[in-house]
Design goal:
By secondary structure, the chain is an alpha+beta fold. It folds into two domains: 17-93; 95-238, Histidine kinase-like ATPase, C-terminal domain (Heat Shock Protein 90, 2-Layer Sandwich), CATH 3.30.565. It is built from five helices and seven strands; from the N terminus they run H-H-E-H-E-E-H-E-E-H-E-E. It has helices at residues 2-58, 64-89, 98-112, 133-153, 199-210, and strands at residues 95-97, 121-126, 130-132, 162-169, 173-179, 214-219, 223-229. The strands form two sheets. It has a five-stranded mixed sheet with strand order 2-4-5-7-6, covered by helices on one side. Strand 6 and strand 7 (223-229) form a beta hairpin. Helix 1 packs antiparallel against helix 2 and helix 2 packs antiparallel against helix 4. The chain is globular and about 70 Å long. It is an enzyme of class 2 (transferase).
C-alpha cells in the first residue's frame, strides 16, 4: 500500500512538473508570437514611410520617365508592405495567406492604373492559400512585377480586360498570371539576368533564382507567365 502511494505520488509530481513546463513553453511561444507580430508591424510602418517619401519625390519631378520609375518603385514597396501587414494581423507569424495578399495586390494595382472594378474581370484561383514567409516575400514581389506588367501594357485595345491569377500546389508551387491582351513578342521578354532586360525583368529573374524556380512565357489567349517553385524549396506551413 505504501509502495502504491509513493508510486501515485511520484506520477502526480511528474504530471505537475510536465504541466508547469508546458505552460512555460506556451507562455514563451505567445511572447515570441507577440514579438514577431510587433516586428512585422514596425517593418510595415517603415515601408509606409518609404512609400510616402517616394510619393513626395514624384511631386518634384518633371521628367515622365523618372516619375514612372519612382511610382513603380513605390508599388514595389507597397507590395512588401502588404505582406508584412498580413503577418502582423494574423496569428500565423511565419506564413502568408496568399489568397488575401494577391487579391489585395491586384485590386490596388487595378485602382492605381485607372481600371474600374465593374469593367474588369479579375479572376483569383488559389488552392494553396498559406505559404511560408521566406517563399511568400520573393514570390509576392514577382507577382507584383507580372501583374504590373499586365496593367501597363496588355489592355490598350482590349474592350473587356481580364486578368487571371492562380496559385496551385502540384509537385511544387506554381504561380500563374495571365492577361487577355495581344501578347508579348520574344524581344519584349528577357528571362535571364542581362543588361538588355529591364529592371523589372532582372528583378523577376533574380528572385526566381533565389527560389530555385523556373519561369516561362506562354502565348495563350494573351500572355501567360508561369512561375514554378520546386517542392524541395517549400517549408511545411503549420
Amino acid at each position: 500500500m505504501l509502495l502504491l502511494t509513493l508510486l501515485l505520488g511520484g506520477l502526480f509530481w511528474q504530471f505537475q512538473s510536465i504541466r508547469r513546463k508546458r505552460s512555460e513553453i506556451e507562455r514563451q511561444a505567445d511572447q515570441l508570437k507577440t514579438l514577431m507580430r510587433e516586428l512585422h508591424h514596425r517593418v510595415k510602418n517603415n515601408l509606409a514611410i518609404v512609400s510616402s517619401l517616394l510619393r513626395l519625390q514624384v511631386r518634384h519631378l518633371d521628367d515622365e520617365k523618372a516619375i514612372e520609375a519612382v511610382r513603380v518603385s513605390q508599388q514595389r514597396v507597397h507590395a512588401m508592405s502588404l505582406i508584412h501587414q498580413r503577418l502582423y494581423q494574423t496569428d500565423a507569424v511565419s506564413s502568408v495567406n496568399m489568397r488575401e495578399f494577391l487579391t489585395d495586390l491586384a485590386q490596388n494595382l487595378m485602382q492605381a492604373y485607372g481600371f474600374e472594378a465593374n469593367r474588369f474581370d479579375l479572376q483569383i484561383a488559389i488552392d494553396q492559400p498559406d505559404v511560408d514567409v521566406d517563399v511568400a516575400i520573393p514570390m509576392g514581389l514577382i507577382a507584383n512585377e507580372l501583374i504590373t506588367n499586365a496593367f501597363k501594357y496588355a489592355y490598350t485595345d482590349v474592350e473587356r480586360p481580364r486578368l487571371h491569377i492562380g496559385l496551385h500546389n502540384h509537385n511544387g508551387l506554381t504561380l500563374e498570371v495571365q492577361d487577355n491582351g495581344p501578347g508579348l513578342a520574344d524581344t519584349d521578354w528577357q528571362p535571364q539576368v542581362n543588361r538588355q532586360a529591364s529592371f523589372g525583368q532582372r528583378l523577376v529573374a533574380t528572385l526566381s533564382q533565389q527560389l530555385d524556380a523556373t519561369i516561362e512565357l506562354v502565348r495563350q489567349n494573351g500572355t501567360l507567365f508561369r512561375l514554378h517553385i520546386p517542392s524541395n524549396r517549400l517549408q511545411p506551413v503549420e
